[in-house]
Amino acid sequence: xxxxxxxxxxxxxxxxxxxxxxxxxxxxxxxxxxxxxxxxxxxxxxxxxxxxxxxxxxxxxxxxxxxxxxxxxxxxxxxxxxxxxxxxxxxxxxxxxxxxxxxxxxxxxxxxxxxxxxxxxxxxxxxxxxxxxxxxxxxxxxxxxxxxxxxxxxxxxxxxxxxxxxxxxxxxxxxxxxxxxxxxxxxxxxxxxxxxxxxxxxxxxxxxxxxxxxxxxxxxxxxxxxxxxxxxxxxxxxxxxxxxxxxxxxxxxxxxxxxxxxxxxxxxxxxxxxxxxxxxxxxxxxxxxxxxxxxxxxxxxxxxxxxxxxxxxxxxxxxxxxxxxxxxxxxxxxxxxxxxxxxxxxxxxxxxxxxxxxxxxxxxxxxxxxxxxxxxxxxxxxxxxxxxxxxxxxxxxxxxxxxxxxxxxxxxxxxxxxxxxxxxxxxxxxxxxxxxxxxxxxxxxxxxxxxxxxxxxxxxxxxxxxxxxxxxxxxxxxxxxxxxxxxxxxxxxxxxxxxxxxxxxxxxxxxxxxxxxxxxxxxx
Amino acid sequence: xxxxxxxxxxxxxxxxxxxxxxxxxxxxxxxxxxxxxxxxxxxxxxxxxxxxxxxxxxxxxxxxxxxxxxxxxxxxxxxxxxxxxxxxxxxxxxxxxxxxxxxxxxxxxxxxxxxxxxxxxxxxxxxxxxxxxxxxxxxxxxxxxxxxxxxxxxxxxxxxxxxxxxxxxxxxxxxxxxxxxxxxxxxxxxxxxxxxxxxxxxxxxxxxxxxxxxxxxxxxxxxxxxxxxxxxxxxxxxxxxxxxxxxxxxxxxxxxxxxxxxxxxxxxxxxxxxxxxxxxxxxxxxxxxxxxxxxxxxxxxxxxxxxxxxxxxxxxxxxxxxxxxxxxxxxxxxxxxxxxxxxxxxxxxxxxxxxxxxxxxxxxxxxxxxxxxxxxxxxxxxxxxxxxxxxxxxxxxxxxxxxxxxxxxxxxxxxxxxxxxxxxxxxxxxxxxxxxxxxxxxxxxxxxxxxxxxxxxxxxxxxxxxxxxxxxxxxxxxxxxxxxxxxxxxxxxxxxxxxxxxxxxxxxxxxxxxxxxxxxxxxx
Lengths: 524, 524
Prior knowledge:
Chain A has a domain at 2-49 and 110-419: Trimethylamine methyltransferase-like (TIM Barrel), CATH 3.20.20.480. The model of chain A is unreliable at 1-33 (pLDDT under 50). The first copy, chain A, is globular and about 75 Å long. Chain A is built from 20 helices and 19 strands. The longest helix of chain A has 22 residues, at 285-306. By secondary structure, chain A is of the alpha/beta class. At the A-B interface, helix 1, helix 3, helix 11, strand 15 and helix 12 of A face helix 1, helix 3, helix 11, strand 15 and helix 12 of B.
């Protein structure tokens, strides 16, 4: 009975998914086994969120954050416009230090949406940000890669394109992300053009804009207008971009410049205190949460001064430092508590929330990397996080994008997506007929209910080896990263770009060429 | 400022812990760095549990379980006494199949305690089972070990003793467990004597009894009476032992025999349906939960027929099978949902709960092992599990006990213990003085609050390498298992046995010698 069942299903590489579309290439790959499988839309969580603070604790932290905003204040550096806007809004501005009357920021944030749609050029890939939605996006920012030959080296634009391609193919990645690695072979002043182009050309998922200078943000908007059409960009959100606070309690000119460009264009910003607790915030969870809330209240409400109604995400990047070496640590209990607590504060503010991902400090995709990433990801998902940056590929405290880890992480993301469906309590889910049919001392392998639910029953890992020790030996004693390496190579070989209108492609290339021409060559 | 702070603390190997005692050896090792650190008592969870079912879902599964108990029934095989007891209690017995009138099992379980204390010979190591307590115990059952030389081979009594020693030294392991591996170099009929002796001699933490035959359970009780005194054992619970159901819906002679011995002696049993969903239970979560509840209701209430008031734990071992190969899989979404749901059902029954651990299917302590283990452990802890078997050392679907994975897992257990303390909302936790002192644009590394909270601030991993890439290179590019290997060797070298009264030790040895003499030599 088992033999029949198993042999019947051997070679079926289809993974269940409730995705819209997926593309002929993906379906072909899925049928042939080892392919990426059917694309999944963003997660619509059917499960509860997990809370670590009660009403009293939340109210206490909110009260303390208002004290920080009023008494200590937040600095908006080298930005006269920002200071003028804050003065006009009723804040007490002393030099570059802004002191906020109690409740001002919270009140300004009433115009920010709780939920917005970020559109993709393929409408089936548009994502909801906020509410019960969770969106996974790849690693952001690493200057290095750990490549498929086991080298750790500076990242190139080829690596960048590769990660965009892998994220495009990954069924459990809903968003193409932003700086999936830093293409350091392209001059820093021109780099953003090639990065934005890669997201537009090699993927059809939504993506993030450049934030390293206001004019690069403007370039991003201009390219979006070519891709989506000017009217569409005016009326819709097509970008979600990352604005970090310089914790503690500072926003600098660069980040404010990009924030203003995006908010003015009704595009979304993630305002994120980048916290290594113990260095950029107090060593305690409650102290860190207080500062995070104060910084987000100031930065996020500033978007509403620029343009009321512009979408803005409550961001938190939580890590602790090692008290021995000062190095950042990941996957430990304290950042998890911060993430859970910050998610609660964001919900009370009515803002979408970003934290976590698959973070780790390990230099290689080993057990340390996996323990730390899984700890971070589990708390990220149960916190009810809406936008998850660094969901795949992060290694070495964010200094390296790792191909093998990317492939392992997306498998974990698929598991989380299945988990978020919760418990099916339908008649089929209850399975009473199966229990009656099988009875004591028999087994369920061949029963009608098992046969009927075969495809959708359990998550099927693309990385895990569940075979016997003997079979694993016979197959070459491969570790998980080795299997991930093979999978990444297969995917990159079979990659097919999504269709892009030739006229649009030409227009994008023209824009990039002209912009590059206007820039000095070796400017960094 | 940072330099002062860091150099001042360099070389401090003490890990925070609120443990009672810890032993001079542990303290010495902790001071010298790299030692196990201060022993921690069982976890007293300050955090909430996570639920996946609402009232309606729970009531549905409870109703369905009662239907299974009444209509399908549970088999009690080769045990005339059990069948007679059930008949007497009002069940409808047909052959070996017992059909339970609605509510009978639940009503019998009213005499079972929600919380009990399992005593250790060192009173500071006694554990609370139930309520907000969580107790971590090592892996149980593997016939193989993956040793410190990288060999996978049959386990020996030396391995057994080693794992008992490591569990004794591990600050985050609260319980010595049972069959930490199968010492296959000792004849199967004599093995239990050496195993129980190892727990008594090489550790002072609580432990589990033999369940492979009623007379071995009797031997365990007899040895406990030597160790604790006859009166103490009569009046207290000193054993928590593992009774698996033969799912679906069968209890066999062996397990029933051991259960009866322990329950009669007022010792605790964990009644656990051992479920590979899709084979031993339906392929759905709700169907599996229904069967698990029915089996536990039957098995656990049977302990109350033997002796009302005997402690009994609601056990669940949740795994799914691969629908491709039939192999068990771990760390996937479905077993997590089963664990969360079963924990809720146990709480409603008022029984302590056991599930999960650090489970994985990987053959080596690689990223697969870590992802799967972390996924399992996170759901185990958030479910509010009271007794966590397999919390450290489990590899290869439970076929191998792995030294390296043991060391990595106990580090993860320490993190969970810290997480369970929740968010400190005291004035010190709020850290408002720190935020005021530091202000915008500075850092917290040297501020008074950081100095004052230095030791207790963050969990300090014994395995993770958080250093720079360059430093990691210079130190030999070690992976997490390599660091774990070195740590295990150091611990085993520095192990010192806890004091045991010589007279008791002699009495135990005499008992074992006499029992072994009475047994055939090569009996298996």
